[in-house]
Amino acid sequence: MGEYIVQMQGITKRFPGVLALNNVQLNLRPGLVHSLMGENGAGKSTLMKILAGVYTLDEGQILLNDKPVKMLNPRDGLANGISMIHQELMFIPELTAAENIYLGRELRDKFGRVSKKLMIQKTREVFDRWNINIDPSEQMKSLSVAQAQMVEIAKAIAFDSKIIIMDEPTSAITEREVARLHDMIRALREAGTAVIYITHKMDEVFAISDEITVFRDGTWVATEKASKMDRNKLISLMVGRELDQLFPKVEAEIGEVVLEVEGLNRGRQVKNVSFQVRRGEILGFAGLMGSGRSEVLETVFGIYPAESGTIKVKGKVTKIREPHQAIAAGLGLLTEDRKKTGIMGVLSVRDNMSIAAINRFSIGGVLRRPQIEKECESQRQALALKTPSLNQLIQNLSGGNQQKVLLSRWLLTDPDILIIDEPTRGIDVGAKSEIHRLMGELAKQGKAIIMVSSEMPEILGMSDRVVVMCEGELVGEVSRKEATQEKIMELATRFSDQAVA
Amino acid sequence: MSKSSTNTASNPVIAAKAGFDLGHFVRTYMIVGVLILFVVALAIMTNGNSIAPVNLVNVIRQVSAIGIIGVGMTFVIITLGIDLSVGSILGLSAVVAASLAQDPTGSLVKFQGIDVPVIVAILAGLGVGALAGFTNGILIAKFRLAPFIATLGMMSIARGLAYIYTGDGRPFSGLKPEYNYLGQGYLFADPNQPLSGIPLPVVLFVGVALIATFVLSYTKFGRYTYAIGGNEVAARVSGIRIPRVTIIIYTISGLLAGLAGILWSARTGSGNSTLGQGIELDAITAVIVGGTSFKGGIGKIWGTVVGALLIGTINNGLDLLNVSPFWQIVVKGCIIIIAIIIDERKNSKTA
Q: Which pTM was predicted?
């Protein structure tokens, strides 16, 4: 056996009109974690789909243990010991963990009947061996995202996969669960599995990788040992230019209080929450996932009605029970889940952009189309939006550009208070820093910005002040000067006895 | 064509930069091509009889009810809803309006000796339709019923009420000529030439379609309609009052069903409680064939109009070719399935 378990050589993949991958190479060694980095559209996922047999390649070859193989469909991938754990997990929620693991190759008893018992027993063996603390007879729908992910990994193990591809596995799990996942990956590495790890999060890349390969615009840029790479070098390889400052914090004048929330309550996720935010200020909301950060702000915005509490906007007590009331009061909310609650996929960029400000864009119910055109066009230029035209369907844009459209949607309403939930989740480095720059500018214009973020560097880099939530309560507040990762994590885990890794 | 359509799918930016997108154009206007194809094919098979002006006007008049209801249905389906009750509402509105439009001097009159102006009969018919639609809207928006369920219930209720209202089941006939004029009259008719001019139902159909086109493309309400179909949660977060818009949309659908009921009863000169049975399927077919997506957020009124014309042409053509009406039903079923397959594929390409 040679040095490499997988060699992908001269891989070229064309989609009509685009060259998605141009003569790309990737070599994997067994027992190492190999991270793939690159902006959205760089070709990482396409290459991985080729390796897993989801796409077929146009040119080039794949060698497994030095022998050429053909991957024509995902079955070929699995048969060759390659498993892909997709960003959006694929399982059948009504079935148990064990049934999902053996989906399509159900275990049978000696009479040829599908045996749940046997599958549960086998699954339990895998779970025990890998320290996965899940009941195999639990239905998938009652598992958390992180647990479901563990089941998927267990499935790969049960398939005897030698190569496991993880596509942004940490985009929806908490820091503690990330630590757990990383432990799992290390154990897989010990066992000689080659793990391919795709993520946008820098910290994780350095925490887990042995080797890093960078792609840009469908071409291979570099492969390096992780120990020889640093953050700035990595970013410059990815974007092809140096980003001198990751968080361009603009100094803004902090003005009067524009939003004051007192004693807000709703269920278990919002317990007696009070806070205020001033003009020119960026207020960070930190906390673990599920700590109630998003829920507090969604309640303020009227997506869920509050059970009690008062909201004062610009000094006036304001009743907000529906989003349209919040908008009328001068609030805007860019939601966390772009696809589910943000974009209207089959509508144009223009329609997506103008919808929240549509009252301003109409007289007596009739649209002022030239004005919509003018203002959307100027947003497009101001935000350097990459779209061939305002008529383009928003679903055809990249994640970063979709996010810019949604930001424009709220800018067009000219809000006094803009709430941004996970401003840069799942978008590439270039768009990320642009959105950060815009947030700084908005604060400078005298808007109050509330930002929810799970990314610690973003919280530390952008916020003037950070409030921390834990289990529905607002447990502390730290100023920009005092804010450190340790301090925030300490507050965020106040009620848990377990320490964070 | 296939090349440029996959092009759009995998790289919209590049495809759109090329300027004219043939694939997109073909997918958008394919329905018009299909209509022309059918018309020409039928014209050849019927030795030109099918495109005689008298027949064409007749076809359009026949489809005006489907078309008017289809216009309302377009709004409904764009918002990811469905309205199964339109046929029954048509029947109920027809009997209510007809009962009030009966010549009180005739025999078998519902309201003996009561003479109301025709306009009252018309308003009553429209009002009944709007009220039934409003009820659908309330059930869907406030009681959170699935549109399919709410309108399925209303389908049964409205039809039942129409039967009850007619009592012995005999249609209301002996309607006033002013009322019948709505269904039988012509606009711009040349008095020297019989059968000239444009039938009133056609005029109303065109009017309704134009107004709806304006509403969908040029008003705030139109944006709301598309936004709700595009992503209801996102629309709500953007400040749209979903319940209000939903109620208005179902009310419009009911109102237009009522209008179709009046026109139909006026054309036949009688209000029959069985009127409009099954027309909901024709209307839905017209909407889907016309390119409105069952997945919401996409749809155009002109598409529905062309869809209705296509159904009318096919029905009429099969009539002229002496094909059994039972086969016509089979053909209609095939059309709706093909339309939905096309819709599926269109969507998977743009996703």
A: 0.76
